[in-house]
Amino acid sequence: MILVTGASGYIGSHTCVELLNAGRQIVGLDNLCNSSLDAVESVKKLTGKEFPFYVADLLDEESLERVFSENEIDSVIHFAGLKAVGESVAKPVWYYKNNISGTVNLLEAMQRHGVKRMVFSSSATVYGAPDEVPIREDAPTRTTNPYGSTKLYIEGILRDLCVADPEFSVALLRYFNPIGAHKSGLLGENPNGIPNNLMPRLCQAVKGQMKELTVFGTDYPTVDGTGVRDYIHVCDLARGHLHALKKIEKDFGIFVYNLGTGKGYSVFELINTFSRVNKVEVPYVICPRRPGDVASVFADPSKAKTELDWEAELGLDDMCADSWNFIKDK
Ligand code: NAD
Ligand code: UFG
Asked: What is the pTM of this model?
């Protein structure tokens, strides 16, 4: 059985669907600080399958112990964590406690129960401002904010664990920019409060919940001056977890993979594609660069293709159509 932490979150819920559709047995855990039980119900509805779900916090060791005692867990896919860059700058201690102490508690419970496999949600943020693009997994790592530091520290903890215990196996998945939603419109990203990321902000601008989208900088050395990113459909990303799981079920050690499409799109390219595909106007205004942003970030995803037999299949049109289909009536 696979324990999925952060199972009701954006990427976790889509991955639960993939796992259940592949015939895997799962148990979900989430403290619902950034998600709701609706996502769990949607996963059950979409797959026609039941699974145990615990409203539990990784910081609560007793609850964790209960999850491990009551289920035959053999692998963990670890999504649970806080992910807002700006909030992490304002509340660094909280981010270190939640993300790092939460992971350490989880690893202790795994050790008590002899569970030695983990797929971990890392991020392209560990590359900081990259020296070159496309980014390979062996590029230097550096962080520019506390959120990114939590990812890099956890990667380090997992590396040390794999050295200490040669029977441990870990896949560190460095996600690029996940957008899109499940085709059904039942699962997607609906962040609380004012979102930071481009796609949810673009959707709010189209819906009139925000006056206009702010385009942060048109003076980058890119195709049209706006920032370039590697947007990846959340369903492709979710599928990548199944491939990573198969890898660590077969081989011991630590493995690092970029999960991206390998294609970079600018802010204007995303706006234009969204407009065309969904037949809507995207009101926007050009603003100065956002502090901390870099010009161009996109993956070299060839290692995941060679070693995991995984590659992204869905393009920007699907990402824009599915994001809008999920959010337009919310
Ligand atoms: P999300 O916020 O939708 O999901 C994370 C889930 O973890 C939430 O449901 C939240 O309630 C839960 N959670 C947080 N702290 C917890 C705790 N202490 N105990 C139990 N549950 C807890 O975010 P997401 O976009 O699905 O991201 C999943 C993972 O992928 C995160 O680790 C995130 O850092 C990482 N990641 C996300 C992105 C992105 O752009 N979405 C990019 C790179 C990496
Ligand atoms: N952007 C705008 N206007 C907005 C929001 C964003 O022009 O309102 C631009 C940004 O300048 C950037 C691009 O859109 O060029 C993408 O910005 P996002 O905030 O959506 O994504 P980032 O690449 O800045 O950051 C994301 C996650 C981080 C993660 C990083 C690397 O938010 O958590 O990808 O994986 F670390």
From this structure: 0.98
